[in-house]
Design goal:
The complex is a heterodimer of chains A (about 180) and B (about 120).
Chain A: H1 3-17, H2 23-46, H3 53-60, H4 63-75, H5 84-122, E1 127-132, E2 138-142, E3 150-152, H6 158-182
Antiparallel strand pairs in A: 1-2, 1-3
Chain B: H1 3-27, E1 33-34, H2 35-42, H3 52-64, E2 68-73, E3 81-86, H4 88-113
Antiparallel strand pairs in B: 1-3, 2-3
The chains are: A mainly alpha (about 180), B mainly alpha (about 120).
Chain lengths: ~180, ~120
């Protein structure tokens, strides 16, 4: 690809990533960078050196990253669009709801699993995981009368599995709540 | 790049992060320069090897902060170029940052020149 095509494509790509800015601001950025590149090109030609467009453009970095640096500080301090505060309020409210729902669900499920594990240890015949003979359904629970025509699947293994899942679930819930709390 | 060079390069990057604004303001003191000229000036110094991708967005931010002003000029047969110079606010900021820089260097020098084990106090305190 000719050097000028490489430059043209770079500037076109940069222009695309600067589209969030005012057109005048974006055009000024493009014009300055274009001016720099052609200054380097002219200096190379007048000194009889070969011009490597890719090397010059490497100094500017990827168009997306370069544009992001301009966009970040240019839009910093710009007043939020109308209705933005209401959106933020709704977003915070939704996060709060999700936080408490996750807390109840995650810790509640862990607690139930722990109770199942403890119950199984003390009353092994009443607690278990049963599968119907036809394999169409699985029943997990506490029952004084084991469901008819079913086989118990886990036996004593239910105790460590229930505890493992309970601790795993509680840990996962704690991590998720930690992430959600930052957004409250 | 050997270990020593790596350490030096890492140190230069860390130091530049905090001092680059001062470097730019100092480079523009009583000078009006366009981007390539400014970059060329900085590249004459071993510890100021910044890239185009660092310089231009920073110049734009400094312009928005009101410490430098930029204007397009055409000199002779050359293409128009965007020249930067300090504003009065930039000159005042350069004076403030210069005194803080010198104070930091003085404090570091004092620590370097006064090794332990005795606990020392800065001069005049």
């Amino acid at each position: 690809m000719a050097e000028r095509d490489i430059i043209h494509n770079y500037l076109k790509s940069l222009s695309k990533y600067l589209s969030r800015l005012d057109k005048a601001d974006a055009d000024d950025v493009i014009r300055e960078i274009e001016s720099h590149i052609y200054d380097v090109l002219e200096a190379s030609e007048s000194e009889g050196r070969s011009f490597d467009a890719a090397a010059v453009l490497a100094g500017f970095g990827e168009p997306r990253e370069l544009a992001a640096q301009y966009v970040d500080h240019m839009l910093d301090g710009t007043p939020p669009p109308e209705g933005f505060k209401a959106i933020q309020r709704v977003k915070r409210g939704a996060t709060k709801g999700l936080y408490y729902a996750m807390e109840i669900f995650g810790y509640g499920l862990s607690l139930i699993l722990m109770i199942v594990g403890v119950y199984k240890a003390f009353s092994p015949d009443d607690v278990g995981v049963w599968a119907s003979a036809s394999g169409e359904s699985i029943i997990v629970g506490v029952s004084s009368q084991p469901p008819g025509h079913t086989d118990e699947l886990l036996g004593w293994w239910l105790v460590p599995i229930a505890f493992g899942l309970a601790f795993g679930g509680a840990y996962l819930t704690k991590r998720i709540l930690g992430v959600l709390k930052e957004r409250l | 790049m050997n270990q020593q060079e790596k350490l030096e390069a890492k140190w230069d990057v860390q130091l530049r992060k905090g001092s680059l604004e001062l470097v730019i303001l100092a480079a523009l003191k009583e000078r009006r320069l366009y981007g390539l000229e400014l970059l060329g000036l900085l590249h004459r110094f071993e510890t100021m090897q910044i890239t185009e991708g660092t310089l231009y967005p920073l110049m734009d931010r400094l312009k928005r902060d009101g410490v430098v002003e930029a204007s397009w000029h055409q000199e002779g047969q050359s293409k128009p170029r965007k020249y930067y110079q300090l504003t009065p606010l930039g000159e005042a900021k350069l004076t403030d940052l210069t005194s803080r820089w010198r104070k930091s260097v003085e404090d570091i020098e004092f620590l370097l020149c006064n090794p332990g084990p005795k606990i020392i106090s800065p001069r005049g305190e």
